[in-house]
Amino acid sequence: MQKIIATLFLASLATFGSVQLSSAHGFKGGEIFIDHPMIQEAPPGARVLGGYVTLQNNGAEDDRLIAIESPAAEKVDLHQSVVTDGIARMTPLSEGLPLPAGQIVWLGDNGTHAMFVQPDRRYAVGDELPATLIFEKAGRVEVTFKVEERSTELAPGHGDHGQ
After folding, report:
1. Has residue 10 got a pLDDT over 50?
2. Which of 2, 99, 101, 117 is most buried (CB neighbours < 10 A)?
3. Whole-prediction pTM value?
4. Which H or E run includes 64?
5. Type and span of the H or E element at 140
6. What's the total number of domains in the chain?
7. Residue 159 — very low, low, confident or very high, per pLDDT cuts 50/70/90?
């Protein structure tokens, strides 16, 4: 039900044009609508930041998020956290994050996330990090990740993200 509501919400945002999209913290690259890139505020001294984003593929062909780059971090990795026998392990998404045609995918579901490694400074709630999302077909799209208060639940509309 949450995915249906999110789909309707994103579709309504897409029809209002770029002015409304930017106020909703949304971006567009090719057939991909990028909604609410966010990072949860990390504790002091953290050497990594977790990034999350909603991606809607409005195209007729599958696409794939293959990488994220940011001048605010040494590197950005795409990972999936998996708990096996009570032990959490992070596995690189070496083939990227699939974006099936006509579907919404949350980088945050099933333990997926972007890991901003060695950020250039301590980021607090309200700060923004520039980044480039790189898609197999849609190409490079400049976005801004907003730092939000840390909670057990991610931003509204992002589902439970495997937590």
Report:
1. no
2. 99
3. 0.78
4. strand 63-69
5. strand 139-148
6. 1
7. very low
